[in-house]
Each structure stands twice: as C-alpha cells, then as structure tokens.
C-alpha cells in the first residue's frame, strides 16, 4: 500500500470522508454524535473521569485514523515498484488507467469497478449528511427518542464543541506531522512509535493480553470442567452401573452354588439313604427257600412263646 | 369424522404393516423398503387427518374410544387425544418416514429391519394415545423390544453390550413404574389416568394409599413419596435424567444411525410425555415435596451434559449428550410447572409459557436431533463408518450444500433465534425464571456450553484446512436433499412462526396448568 490516492481517487475520497466522520471532524456526522456523548459525560455529577477518557479516546481516534490514511493513501507506494507505472503524470494516469485485466494480472493497484464505487459514494454522502438528524440547533432525533421537546443549552454546548474540535485537530495534526515528515519506506520497516518505545508498543499490539488472560482462565476452566463431567460419567457412574451388574451376576452365582451344593446335595443324600434302606429290605426277599423257612421257624417260635407267656398273665 | 375410530387405525396401521413387511422374503429388499415407506406415509396421512379434524379450542379429549376390556378388574381400552397427544403423534408420524428413508442403504435382513421400525412406530402411537395404564404400559414396553433388536442386530461393534444395557436399564425403571401403579390400583381400584388425576387433585389419592396399603407403618407422606420415587424412576431413566443416563451414549453411538434418529427423536420424548401425562397430574403433591432436589437434578442434567459433550470424540456421542442437555430443559420446565402457586394468575401465565415451551421444545428437538443424526448417517455412508470429530476438516470447500444444511440443523440445536430451537428454550426460561429463579439462572449456562461445543464441532468438521483423505467427499445428493428438506423447512417455519405449533396445544396447556391449582 501507500500512495494509493493516485491510483484510486474515488476510494480515497470516500475513505477520507469516512475517516473524518469517524474522527469527529466538525460538521461530519460523527461530530454531532460524539459531541452529544461528551456533553452528556461532562454533565455527569459524580465524576469527570469518563468525560476525560472520552476526550482522550477522541484524540487517539483522530491520531490513528490519520496515521492510517497517511500509511495507505499518502507517502509513496511500498509494493512492488517494478510493476507500477511511473506516476509523474498522475492526472494522465487517472484519466487513462490501464484496463482492469492488465491491472489485475500485474497486480497494479486500480480503482474498483462501479459496483463498488457507487455504493461508496452513497455511503460517503450519508457520512456527511446523516449527522444533521440530531444537531443542537434542531434536535429532531432527540425529541423523537425522549418524546418531549429537547432544549439544548447553547453556550455550554458551543464551548464543548470547540474543545472536542481542538482535540481532533491536535490528533490529526500530530499524526500528519509524524508520518508526513518520516514516511515509511518499506512494508517491513517498523512503525515510528514502535522504534521509539518498543515495549509499550508490544503491549498495545497484543491487545493488553486480554485474549491470553481469557484463554488461561475461562477457557481452561471450561475444558477442565468438561473433562470432569466426562470422568464422572466414565469412571463413577459407569462403575456404579457395572457394580450393580456384577452384583447381580454374583447373586446368580450364589444361587447356583446353593442349588448345586445345598439343595441338590441334600436331596442326593436323602435319596442315597433311601436306596440303602431299600437294598437292606430287599434282602428279605432274596428267593432262597431256606431263608424263608428260617424266618418262618423263628416267627413260629416267637409266636408260641408269646402265646404261652401271654396267656399265663 | 370424530366418530371414526381414527386413533385405533393410527395404532394398527404400522402394526399390521409391520406384519406384512415381515412376511416378505429376505431377498425382496426393494419391495420391503418401498412397502415400509408406503406404510409410514399412510400413517402420516392418518395422523394428518387426525390433526386436521382436531378442534384446537376444545378443552375435552377428542377421538375418544372406550371399550370395556376386563370388567372385573375395571380395565378399559381407553384412547383419546388432546393437544399434547396430537403433538407427539405428529412428531412420530414425521420422524419415522425420515428414518425409513435414511435406512434405504441397509442390506442385511431388510424385511425384519423395517418390520421392527414399523412396530416401534405402533408402540409409540399406542403410548401417546393411551389413557389407561394397562394398555399404556403394554405399548410402553412394546416400543422397547424392536429397539433392542434393531440395536443388537444392525448396530456397531459394541452393539450387544449397548442393546442389553439399554434394555435392562429401561426395564428396571419400568418395573418401578409398574410397582407404583399396582400400588395405586390397590388403593383406588382404577388404572384410568383421567380418574386418577381427579383423585389426586382432591387429595383422595394419597389418603387412599395409606388407608388401603398398610406398608410397615409408613406415614401418609412417606408412602406417597415411596410410590412417587418408584414411578419417577421409570421416567427418569427414559428421559434421561442424570444420573440415570449412562445407558444413552453407548446406545446412541452403537445403534445404526436411523435407529438413533428414532431413539433421540421419539423414544426420549416418551419420558417427558410420561412426566407430563402421568407424574405431574397424578402425584403433584409429592413432586412439590421434593421439588428443589428434582430441579437440581434437571439443572445438573442441562449443565453437565453440555459440558460432557465438549470432550467427546465421536460425533454421535456429542449429539447424544446434546440430546440429554436439551431434554434437561424440558424437564426443568415440566418440574417448575408443578410448583404450587394457588390462584395466582400471573404465575399461572408463566406456567403456561413454560409448559408451552416444554411441548414446543419436545417437538423441535425431536425434529432437529433426528435431522442431525440423519446428516451424521450421510457422513458415515461416505466415510465407511468413520465419525471421529477430528478426522475431518474443511468439508465446506468440497461439500458446501451439505455443510450449509447441516449447519442450519446445528444452529437450530444451538438455539439461534429465527430457527425453531430458540422459541422452545426461550419460553421455558421465560416461564421458569419467576417460578424457580436459581434453576433458570444456572441452566442458562447450559445455553452457553451448548454453543461452545456445537461451534467446536462445526469448526473441526466444516472449517479449517481440507483433510486430503476426504477430498472425494461428495456433496449432498438429490435423494438426501428430499429426506431432510421437510425438516429444514419446518425449522425455519417454526422458528419464524411458532404459533403454528403452539396454537395446536395451547388450550391443553392452559387446562393442564389449571389442573395444578390445587
């Protein structure tokens, strides 16, 4: 980039308008809204700190926007200078820019086609005019918002407008001076302020390390919490369920042991005794006639003895 | 039209259809698929017919049929439909055809597969229309059996363990439910939900329990709590509520993806339906007695599930934990609504909002989760079963339409305003905040955590550098677009105009809130 205002004048013009509106240059749209806010901050009874911070913010905005415009549109082109045509006659270049396909293939900076520039122009018009919706002279928007007619104190407002304008011009002037007098020559060259105060610049570049702080605290906590819930699921609850399953399997085993070795065994022993008893009894009927005669003889003797002794008493 | 036994036809169509499909030969795959698809579309038509003839302003049950089944035991076949039932019937009728079309590539034992899916649908229809515990429980268990076989026969590498754990865990819960209802039957002599909720409203139920069941000299309150815990167990396992959820990630991961669509879209809703139809009307006093711990469990379900989803590496497990998280919101709303607020009309309006949110969230989540699993199924088909979150990358470059459509479903799951997921969650929080502020406040964390893990999944799978291994990942085909198009359209429609759904059940919701006044 650099020196682009010669290559793309319309983009430069609209960008400059947008930049001035953002910085709060008087009569652009950003000026009115910024001023309203500063006016309200100034009127806060509790402290003037927000107001001062707002002013400081306005100064910084003007500074960095001007720095950017200098970097991008002024100074000299820092890209590949061999490809870029000589711009001693800037007017001729603007009048007769090389055709788009040539610019694109050679990577020469060129103006955007009308599909981009027309919207840019429309937006730039708004950037200038939209602010007039709510100025102190005719607070139409404020009246619409609050519902009753707003009265703006003219003198206080005017003083504040002058102060903020001064701040904006100081910021723009400072940046214009610094980067106008010491323009960067190549893209690799470090910023002027970085060379002056590298450590402070580093803090700013790393956005006050907020992202790293967030990563180290909130994100790590959340990752740890997720792992904890997963551990809870896998180790604790699944173990409980598995424990119940093993309990049931254990109970089944106990049941089976009881069946096999207590009930079956007891039953088997009872049957065994029955069989032995039966075997003994079966000896009475062994088919030997001599044994039967012996038993009959024994029984007869006992019977006779019982009869004789029984009758005598 | 109201005299026509539409609800019986609704339940019987998939049942008989399943029998027809089962009778086909194993090699008649195309016929089996087409017949099953046709039957599911016929069920959809019947459900739509029911929906069209449904009067949304009527406070009475509609399409009621009562048949004396076992007069000596006072058991009737009692079906009827109100807004809640209709919503669930419509959801079932919508998700099952999606699952059937997503199962088109199944090659193994095709007639049995589709017969089981159809019987699952029949079980669902039966559960959502039954109003007598006897046949409600039969259908409740009936839907478990096809799911068991579907997981066990066509699932992933750990399917046996997953199927057995799913079946036994849910069955244990159901046994608690059965015991509780047997006790209630002993006390009151009826299985009828409507009659039981009337008895509960007047307080007769608890007193009848202590009069007829003299268990170990428990006080009335303790007895009521015991019955409540038993019944609660049945539904807590089904929803699921942490810590009764451990069966879910394994079952969802190992089931074939179309079956997971059914599990997450429909069967988890059965649990919430049970809360709303049975627990909250019949044992509200006991819920109120232990409301704080129950709300705590719901909050834990919301937050822990969302956190656990962040560390999962399998896409299906991420979505499984996401399901638990979304159902946690439903339970949060359902439990907060049970809180006693007397005649306060302001709080009654908040309760109605919360309950509307719960019902809407049930429908929306069923739709969204089914669509998401459908997309995961498409991924699996292209990568031969690989679903590891970090195995992909940069798919947006080669399959932009696929990533766009799946992105819509993911954002709906996240709760992006403009899509359907937002409205249900918003209504739940709106209603729960005045009723149980702390619970709502902590659960809002769940919204943040959901966003974190869903965006992480999108970042890993869609964005980033293209993983060269999947350079041949095809974009979504025309058939696949047809499968998900109705769901995606509904996501936008219900996100912008949720009144379409709320208008169906608002009357029922107001009536339910009214019934909780005592």
Walk me through what this model shows.
The complex is a heterodimer of chains A (about 325) and B (about 525). The mean pLDDT of chain A is about 80. Chain A has two domains: about 5-205, no CATH class; about 215-310. Chain A has about 325 residues and is mainly α. Chain A is rod-shaped and about 165 Å long. Chain A has 13 helices and no strands. The longest helix of chain A is centred in the C-terminal third of the chain and has 73 residues, at about 210-280. In chain A, helix 2 (about 10-25) packs antiparallel against helix 4 (about 50-75), helix 2 runs parallel beside helix 7 and helix 3 (about 30-40) runs antiparallel to helix 4. Chain A has helices at about 5, 10-25, 30-40, 50-75, 90-95, 100-105, 115-130, 140-145, 155-180, 190-195, 200-205, 210-280, 290-310. By secondary structure, chain B is mainly alpha-helical. Helices cover about 75% and strands about 5% of the residues of chain B. Chain B contains 22 helices and two strands. Chain B has helices at about 5-20, 30-50, 85-100, 110-130, 135-140, 145-155, 160-190, 195-200, 205-210, 220-240, 245-255, 255-280, 285-290, 290-310, 315-335, 345-385, 395-400, 400-415, 420-435, 435-460, 480-495, 500-515, and strands spanning about 60-70, 75-80. Chain B has a two-stranded antiparallel ribbon. The longest helix of chain B has about 40 residues, at about 345-385. The mean pLDDT of chain B is about 90. Chains A and B meet through helix 12 of A and helix 14 of B.
């Amino acid at each position: 980039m650099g020196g682009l205002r010669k290559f793309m004048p319309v983009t430069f013009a609209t960008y400059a308008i947008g930049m001035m509106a953002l910085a709060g240059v008087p009569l652009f749209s950003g000026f009115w809204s910024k001023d309203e806010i500063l006016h309200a901050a100034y009127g806060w009874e509790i402290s003037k700190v927000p107001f001062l911070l707002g002013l400081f913010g306005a100064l910084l905005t003007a500074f960095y926007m001007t720095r950017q415009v200098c970097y991008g549109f002024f100074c000299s082109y820092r890209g590949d200078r061999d490809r870029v045509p000589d711009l001693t006659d800037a007017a001729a270049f603007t009048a007769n820019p090389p055709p788009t396909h040539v610019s694109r293939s050679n990577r020469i900076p060129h103006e955007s086609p009308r599909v981009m520039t027309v919207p840019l122009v429309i937006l730039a018009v708004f950037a200038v005019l939209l602010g007039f919706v709510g100025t102190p002279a005719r607070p139409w928007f404020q009246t619409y918002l609050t519902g009753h007619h707003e009265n703006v104190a003219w003198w206080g407002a005017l003083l504040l407008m002058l102060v903020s304008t001064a701040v904006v011009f100081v910021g723009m002037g400072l940046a214009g001076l610094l980067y106008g007098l010491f323009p960067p020559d190549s893209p690799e060259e470090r910023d002027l302020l970085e060379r002056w105060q590298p450590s402070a610049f580093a803090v700013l570049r790393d956005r006050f390390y907020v992202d790293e702080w967030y990563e180290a605290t909130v994100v790590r906590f959340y990752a740890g919490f997720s792992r904890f819930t997963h551990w809870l699921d896998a180790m604790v609850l699944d173990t409980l369920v598995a424990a119940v399953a093993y309990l049931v399997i254990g109970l089944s085993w106990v049941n089976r042991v009881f069946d096999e070795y207590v009930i079956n065994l007891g039953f088997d022993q009872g049957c065994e005794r029955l069989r032995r008893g039966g075997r003994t009894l079966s000896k009475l009927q062994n088919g030997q006639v001599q044994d039967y005669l012996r038993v009959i003889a024994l029984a007869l003797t006992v019977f006779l003895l019982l009869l004789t002794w029984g009758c005598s008493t | 039209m109201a005299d026509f036994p539409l609800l019986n036809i609704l339940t019987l169509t998939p049942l008989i259809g399943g029998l027809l499909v089962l009778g086909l030969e194993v090699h008649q795959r195309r016929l089996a698929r087409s017949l099953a698809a046709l039957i599911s579309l016929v069920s959809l038509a019947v459900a739509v017919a029911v929906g069209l003839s449904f009067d949304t302003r009527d406070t009475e049950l509609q399409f009621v049929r009562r048949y004396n089944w076992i007069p000596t035991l006072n058991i009737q076949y009692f079906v009827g439909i109100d807004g809640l039932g209709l919503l669930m019937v419509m959801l079932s009728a919508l998700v099952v055809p999606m699952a059937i079309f997503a199962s088109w590539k199944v090659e193994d034992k095709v007639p049995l597969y589709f017969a089981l899916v159809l019987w699952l649908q029949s079980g669902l229809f039966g559960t959502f229309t039954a109003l007598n515990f006897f046949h409600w429980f039969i259908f409740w268990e009936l839907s478990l059996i096809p799911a068991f076989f579907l997981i066990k026969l066509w699932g992933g590498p750990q399917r046996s363990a997953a199927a057995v754990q799913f079946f036994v865990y849910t069955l244990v819960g159901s046994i608690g439910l059965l015991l509780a209802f047997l006790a209630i039957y002993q006390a009151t002599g009826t299985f009828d939900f409507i009659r039981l909720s009337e008895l509960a409203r007047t307080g007769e139920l608890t007193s009848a329990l202590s009069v007829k069941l003299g268990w170990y000299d428990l006080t009335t309150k303790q007895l009521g709590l015991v019955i409540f815990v038993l019944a609660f167990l049945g539904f807590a396992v089904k929803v699921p509520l942490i810590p009764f959820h451990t069966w879910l990630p394994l079952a969802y991961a190992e089931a074939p993806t179309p079956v997971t669509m059914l599990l997450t879209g429909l069967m988890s809703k059965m649990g919430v339906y049970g809360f709303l139809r049975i627990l909250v009307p019949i044992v509200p006093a006991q819920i109120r007695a232990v409301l704080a711990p129950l709300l705590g469990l719901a909050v834990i379900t919301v937050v822990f599930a969302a956190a656990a989803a962040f560390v999962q590496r399998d896409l299906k497990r991420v979505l499984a934990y996401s399901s638990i998280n979304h159902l946690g919101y439903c339970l949060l709303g359902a439990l907060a609504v049970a809180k006693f607020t007397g005649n306060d009309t302001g709080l009654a309006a908040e309760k109605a909002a919360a309950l509307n949110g719960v019902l809407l969230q049930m429908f929306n989540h069923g739709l969204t989760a089914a669509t998401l699993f459908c997309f995961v199924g498409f991924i699996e088909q292209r990568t031969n079963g690989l679903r590891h979150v970090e195995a992909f990358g940069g798919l947006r470059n080669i399959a932009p339409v696929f990533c766009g459509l799946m992105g819509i479903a993911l954002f709906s799951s996240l709760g992006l305003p403009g899509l359907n997921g937002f409205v249900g969650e918003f209504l739940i929080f709106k209603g729960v905040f005045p009723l149980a502020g702390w619970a709502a406040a902590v659960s809002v964390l769940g919204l943040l955590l959901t966003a974190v893990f869903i965006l992480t999944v999108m970042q890993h799978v869609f964005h980033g550098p293209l993983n060269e291994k999947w350079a041949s990942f095809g974009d979504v085909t025309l058939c696949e677009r047809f499968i998900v198009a109705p769901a995606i359209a509904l996501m936008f429609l219900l996100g912008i105009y949720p009144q379409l759904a709320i208008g169906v059940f608002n009357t029922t919701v107001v009536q339910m809130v009214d019934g909780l006044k005592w």
